[in-house]
What we know:
The structure holds two protein chains of two kinds.
Chain A: H1 3-15, H2 18-24, H3 30-54, E1 59-65, E2 70-75, H4 78-101, H5 109-128, H6 132-150, H7 157-188, H8 193-198, H9 200-205, H10 209-223, H11 232-235, H12 241-250, H13 255-267, H14 271-294, H15 298-320, H16 329-367, H17 383-397, H18 403-421, H19 429-452, H20 470-488, H21 490-505, H22 528-545, H23 547-550, H24 563-585, H25 590-612, H26 627-645, H27 649-669, H28 673-694, H29 707-730, H30 741-744, H31 747-751, H32 756-764, H33 766-788, H34 791-797
Antiparallel strand pairs in A: 1-2
Helix pairs in contact in A: 1-3, 1-5, 2-5, 3-4, 3-5, 3-21, 4-5, 4-12, 4-16, 4-20, 4-21, 5-6, 6-7, 7-10, 10-13, 10-14, 12-16, 13-15, 14-15, 14-19, 15-16, 15-18, 15-19, 16-17, 16-18, 16-20, 16-21, 17-19, 17-20, 18-19, 18-20, 18-22, 19-22, 20-21, 25-29, 26-27, 27-28, 32-33
Chain B: H1 6-29, H2 37-54, H3 57-63, H4 68-85, E1 98-103, E2 107-112, H5 113-137
Amino acid sequence: MSWIHFFILVPILFSVFIPILYKIFPRIHTGWFVLSIPIVLFIYFLQQVPSVMNQEPVLHTLSWISSLGIDFSVYLDGLGLLFSLIITGIGSLVILYSIYYMSKEREALHNFYVYLMLFMSSMLGVVLSDNVIVLYVFWEITSISSFLLIAYWYQRKGSRYGAQKSMLITIFGGLSMLAGFLLLSIVTDTFSIQAMIGMREEIFHHSLFLPAMLLILLGAFTKSAQFPFHIWLPDAMEAPTPISAYLHSATMVKAGIYLVARFTPIFGGATEWMWAVSICGLVTLFWGSFLAVKQTDLKALLAYSTVSQLGMIMSLLGVGSMALYPGTEEASILLSTAILAALFHLINHATFKGSLFMIVGIIDLETGTRDIRRLGGLMSIMPISFTITVIGGLSMAGLPPFNGFLSKEMFFTGMLNAAESIGSWTTLFPYVAWLASVFTFVYSLIIILKTFAGSYQPEKLDKKPAEPPVGMLIPPIILASFVVVFFFFPNTLSYTVLEPAMQSILPFLLNTGEQFHVHITAFHGWNMELLMTIGVVLFGTILFFTLKKWSAIYDHLPEKLNINDLYNAGLSGMEKFSSKIIDLHMTGYVRDYLVYLFTFVIVLIGSSALHFQVFSFHFQGNGPIEIYEIVLVVVMVLAALYVILSTSRVMAVIAVGAVGYMLSLFFVILRAPDLALTQLVVETITTTLFALCLIYLPKLKKEISRVRVKVTNLLIAIGVGLIFTLIGLSVQGHRLLPPISHYFEDAYELAGAKNMVNAILVDFRGYDTMFEVIVLLIAGLGVFTLIKLRPTSREEKE
Amino acid sequence: MKFSNVMLETATKIIIFIVLTFSTYLFFAGHHNPGGGFIGGLVMTAAIVLFYMTFDVVTAREVIPVNFRKIGAFGALIAVTTGVGSFLFDVPFLTQSFTYVDLPLFGETELATSLLFDVGVFLAVIGSVMTIILSISEDV
């Protein structure tokens, strides 16, 4: 176990103490305690920057389920470090912000921060794990923590709807990603991503290449809200604003981007990969920016904007992956700038979108609304917020002197390079990119001007707005200052973080020993990119001021293609379908269920036994039958007969218990004391349990049922009895597999136990016992929940 | 429904200690003789159930003021944590170990980590089974 494993798990470990701290210090905002965690982690990851820059990345392995090849192995390279820095850096700022956003009097802070810490650990795990199964586990934990955080205000219907939607879509994607991972591991016989990258040639020529690629992409696209899976992200905005800023714009939604970047060395260079990623990205970019313009809720607007920006990064990764395409050596360096642009924009997006989200949260708190139709003229009332919004908004629009300008220019460069060197349909890419940028410019202007300029409408606001407390402004100010700093000094970033990250996405592009040399400059002369930006500004301004005239086109969008409606219809359709099926066979009568069960037993076991011809009887090796064994059998048969003929339920149960006790006597005779003991005790407990249940049942009456039912029951009873008797008699005649008992014969040396049965239980097969215990506990809690927490008893309580 | 059965009550008062002692014995004997956490737990459950059946629920609650759900969860937690504990020694999950220690009074005694695991099983069994039985029996 190395430090890095520990640091990944620190947030989860710390979350154990959060409820305690919340209880002990009710007067101190719990966020202050939590804040220390991401700051420490951020400093730790910053310290790793020099070593990642200069050395080969190292694989730190912590054995977990080594026998299956599943180990918690951590691979800290440029890409993982870049993401880790974003996760912990933005995380620190968001937690600081949340201290002011979340009221300590009204909110269940302990839940909030536990979920948040759960998320932080799992997100770090996603970007640092080298083992795909571990990555998958962390990936799903991010989905679950996102679900919990979206549903944080679970009293609201919208929150529950949004949480469920995000959960269904992202977990669906996660499962298909798992399937893709499994296909890859079938091809390569390993779970390690780095080992898979080493075997990329085999993967490339394997017939499972395409299915694995598509399945993994499905995971990436659902997580990163790519078209047509983007529908969950706007609904996820029901979460508290710090969560929207953190999970749903800066980190979790970028897990898909991470996945695409991480698997580029394996799949990149395949034309299918390039087309799938870049076209999906561009469609998302355009559709998101187009829909963002029509939104009236600031958070929904930012959500669509995030969708669109994620599409932009995705399309860059798609185009850049062509650098690995065989035969494009001369263009590959040119195309690799697209990867650089993607990484750079990833950071920039986290800074400007984070600050914008925080400002929207502030506006929401201060005015009581996020509706741009009610806002306006806040410029003079909230000057600091206004300044931050201008910085963030113009950066998003792609204007200098902000970092968004640099990455937007690089985006245009990447698309132009693609059009030039790949040709065919990619010649359309710059046009789509430009058009989407125009809409991006328009909605950036909407955020800035509709909120802060125009006429102030105090009568429409619930509260009298003012600047929030300083502490709440500090995080967006820090982010906004990064927006400016990165414009003037982009290369501090490129030497330290971007170059190693590029190295890990495109590991085979350069000869060994070489490094990427990245130098970002703001002004390249009057080239195509700059002209495109000027065009965006001109055209965007016109569109913004004529918004009223052309916004009618949104009403003419085809109704039937609304993906949200499709989702809702699909969901309710599935609900109806499954409830129909359930109504069909769930009659509510235990005897019906027993009929199903036993029929299946007869059909499955009986037919397979006949098919494999297992029935064979050899009695020659059996020991002699003693007189007391015959006595036991006679007693058992009598007790069983008594069960059938008894008129009292309690007596029947006791008779069943007698059968069990006789059985345990058999265990004693056959020298299995552990089994005998267990059988005795279990029989005692179950008889008690039965007796308790039977108190509530009506008196046993002579049953009057139709002949047909009786005959069926008789047939089933005879069938089950017959099959088990035959199997019991045939067991001796078969030895399908070699006995495993010799494995346990060394119990005393291996486990220090003279009782082999118990050595197996707690030592050799400890896993089984552990899960059995957990299953038992779940069953216990299940009974408790069913009986004690029924809706009726809840009503009675109220 | 409160009913008194003097013979049952008197007998229970004596029997219960025998059963409890036996269950403790079974629990510790498990390593070398028949017994162990599961059986020990079930025998102890049987003792508690006997107590509940002889005396009424209110009295039993007063005498045994524990929440069996918590006991069960605590037991499962112990079982899982002993497994996680093996990570500290860089061995696979749930690896057990044992050693021989010279203790005063007992002489040379074997100490095994599987005992800790068995404590978890023991508690989880008691907690879960008692939860089931009490939930059903109190459901009037």
